[in-house]
Amino acid sequence: MYSHAPEGYICPFCLLAAGIENEHVWSVQSDIVHRDETVTAFVSVHQWPNNAGHVIVIPNQHFENIYDLPTPATARIHETARRVALAMKAAYRCDGISTRQHNEPAGNQDVWHYHLHVFPRYAGDALYASHPPRVMPADERAEYAARLKRQLNERTANED
Ligand SMILES: [Zn+2]
């Protein structure tokens, strides 16, 4: 419904979720902080200057936007965003968390696979006014991913 993906669209997020690294996907497997049968969460290639280490949560299955998203995937995505938010609080010592999610060109959607951004927030960081984001190198992203994974694993261990 309300699809804007061009004919023959090669979806970078489907490739990432499937464990594929090639010229069609900017992200690499070392960006991933969490993956299960339903969702994948990873440190974004694009990073805003005052909010480094922000994460994107996607359904593994291809749904273009919020209109198409089935309830089980919706629940799992938000639950994962919550876990990532708590991991960020512990790993980054951030003051707050914001989530952002865009649909259709008028909503500034840029990848035609549903994705939810989870941002660490700091007092006075001007997230919504600071543009454009920069491309963070893969080795730097891997460091953020490692910090978050450590927290996610610790929290999972404590829940058992
Ligand atoms: Zn996709």
Topology:
Blueprint: H1 12-17, E1 32-35, E2 39-43, E3 46-47, E4 55-59, H2 71-92, E5 96-100, E6 116-121, E7 134-135, H3 138-159
Antiparallel strand pairs: 1-2, 2-4, 3-7, 4-6, 5-6
SSE string, helix = H, strand = E? HEEEEHEEEH
Q: Based on DSSP secondary structure assignment, what is the total number of beta strands?
A: 7
Coarse structural class: alpha+beta
N-C termini distance:
40 Å
- Spatial strand arrangement across the major sheet: 1-2-4-6-5
Please bin the fraction of helical residues.
25-40%
Outline type: globular
- On the 0 to 100 scale, the average pLDDT is 95
Question: How would you explain this protein's 3D organization?
Answer:
The structure is a single chain. With 160 residues, the protein is α+β, with helices and mostly antiparallel strands. The protein has one domain (12-123, 130-159): HIT family, subunit A. The protein is built from three helices and seven strands, in the order H-E-E-E-E-H-E-E-E-H. It has helices spanning 12-17, 71-92, 138-159; strands spanning 32-35, 39-43, 46-47, 55-59, 96-100, 116-121, 134-135. The termini are far apart. 29% of the residues are buried. Zinc ion (ZN) binds at residues 11, 13-14, 62, 113.
